[in-house]
């Protein structure tokens, strides 16, 4: 502003400063609109991929051998709506380029989580090539062992194994599946061992 005043005079300097400020804001607004447009397209692609993900999972998991109980949840819908609300909010509450980018990326991550949950909803069960449990898909070829089976007959064990199953993968990772009840757990273990005899203790 001082430079403008020295070169052009006070009134002219103010006009030039105002023009530059307005131009900067218009540029920022256009960038925000562009980012939001890209986020909407990405959101639509993520949500639109849900049927394709489900179809691909069914093909890779194989034939359903034993359906399992799973607490039905529609929270993915709430997550998806929340993600879309964030994207819709950004153009009306411009909080700066960096904050806008963070908000939009957060919304897309939430959309991805919602899509993953939606793709496996209603698919919990033991299949010929994998076990689908909630959002987890564990392929039998990736399983190294089921350590829970080795000590479940031990009278000194805590009994937590009755509704849970620890799975160690070939890459060293470990995950625990928690079933609705003992019957579901017993049926799942029996079906898995029938499919993959090498996992027997």
Describe what is shown at a glance:
With about 200 residues, the chain is α+β, with helices and mostly antiparallel strands. It has helices at about 1-10, 10-50, 50-60, 75-90, 95-120, 150, 180-195; strands spanning about 65, 125, 130-135, 135-140, 145, 165-170, 175-180. Strand 6 (about 165-170) and strand 7 form a beta hairpin.
* Mean pLDDT reading: 81
Give the amount of beta strand, in percent.
5-15%
Rg calc: 27 Å
Distance between the amino and carboxyl termini: 79 Å
Q: How would you classify the helix and strand content by structural class?
A: alpha+beta
Oligomer: single chain
- Arrangement of strands in the largest sheet: 1-2-3-4
State the low-pLDDT regions, or none.
1-10, 13-28
Percentage of helical residues? 55-70%
Helical element count?
Answer: 7
Shape: elongated
Q: How many β strands by DSSP? A: 7
Order of helices and strands, N to C? HHHEHHEEEEHEEH
Largest pleated sheet: 4 strands, antiparallel
List the helices and strands and how they pair.
Blueprint: H1 2-8, H2 10-48, H3 50-61, E1 64-67, H4 75-89, H5 97-120, E2 125-127, E3 130-133, E4 136-139, E5 143-145, H6 148-151, E6 164-169, E7 174-178, H7 182-195
Antiparallel strand pairs: 1-2, 2-3, 3-4, 5-6, 6-7
Helix pairs in contact: 1-2, 2-4, 2-5, 3-5, 4-5
């Amino acid at each position: 502003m001082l430079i403008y005043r020295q070169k052009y005079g006070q009134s002219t300097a103010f006009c030039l400063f105002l023009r530059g400020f307005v131009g900067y804001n218009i540029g920022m607004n256009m960038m925000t609109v562009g980012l939001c447009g890209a986020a909407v397209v990405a959101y639509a692609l993520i949500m639109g991929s849900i049927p394709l993900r489900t179809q691909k999972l069914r093909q890779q998991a194989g034939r359903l051998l034993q359906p399992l109980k799973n607490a039905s949840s529609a929270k993915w819908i709430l997550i998806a709506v929340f993600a879309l609300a964030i994207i819709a909010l950004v153009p009306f509450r411009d909080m700066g380029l960096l904050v806008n980018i963070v908000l939009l990326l957060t919304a897309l991550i939430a959309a991805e989580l919602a899509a993953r949950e939606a793709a496996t909803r209603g698919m919990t069960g033991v299949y010929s090539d994998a076990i689908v449990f909630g959002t987890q898909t564990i392929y039998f070829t990736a399983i190294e062992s089921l350590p829970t089976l080795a000590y479940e007959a031990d009278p000194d064990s805590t009994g937590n194994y009755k509704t849970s199953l620890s799975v160690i993968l070939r890459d060293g990772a470990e995950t625990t599946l928690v079933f609705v009840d003992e019957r579901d757990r017993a049926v799942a273990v029996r079906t898995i061992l029938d499919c993959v005899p090498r996992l027997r203790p």
